[in-house]
Amino acid sequence: MPNISSxxxxxxxxxxxxxxxxxxxxxxxxxxxxxxxxxxxxxxxAVACDHRLHTPMYFFLLNLALLDVGCISTTLPKAMANAxxxxxxxxxxxxxxxxxxxxxxxxxxxSILTIMAYDRYIAICKPLHYGSLLSSRACAQMAAAAxxxxxxxxxxxxxxxxxxxxxxxxxxDQFFCQIPQIVKLSCSDAYLKExxxxxxxxxFVFGCFVFIVLSYVQIFRAVQRMPxxxxxxxxxxxxxxxxxxxxxxxxxxxxxxxxxxxxxSPSLDLLVAVLYSVVPPAxxxxxxxxxxxxxxxxxRRLMTRDVTKSxx
Length: 312
Prior knowledge:
Largest sheet: 2 strands, antiparallel
Mean pLDDT: 85
Oligomer: single chain
CATH superfamily: Rhodopsin 7-helix transmembrane proteins
Helix content: over 70%
Number of domains: 1
CATH class: Mainly Alpha
């Protein structure tokens, strides 16, 4: 029986067969990647440089932007390189690194989104306790817990996945290395341990989702009781971007992993993978900047200061 140690590389799924379409995909993904780097980079710069944004909400937004950059940088550069050089190969070590970092950034991002829901819940439902419950130390501890739990989860999944013996070749039916695709290559009696770990992870994800939903139920109830229309509008304006990001994140994940097998096809699976791994990191900065006047003002001040310095 072939063992995983005999595999030196994996073959990723190509976006297209013709050279022209490969170059088109390269250009398209390069544009998306640069847009994601620019958008998240602006958010990072604005939050880091503007003292008015040194609050818990923007601290967690900074963490989200960092995770978005990491997530999209794990998948797209290799896909673009393969499209540019007309190859499908990724080394064994590169594949393991992709799995490790993607699970790490993906899991940590979901934890940060859950913490951001808690931040909004405290700000709107318990404003008098906001300073004590979300102090600088508490925020740092929650962020560290999100990153730490994401890394531990990624290490466990990666070690478990790449300890499985492979009996089904080395062709991965996706444009980047994914745990379900690697598990498909394992022997039929060897993947049960990884499936158990995946079930545990999905249980954690479902628990976070329930927490976010319950938080927003309480938030909407509190907003409806506000006597001021301006107060309701301000509360909604701080919640809607986060709710939109969570909805995009969860809906693409659910469609990817819960769609019926009858809908599965290589092209559809490829499209869905792009939707949940590439689109959110590129779109999240736009969602947060559209309705957030404080962030817009900070970006405007940052741009004005850079222009002033360049003129001097």
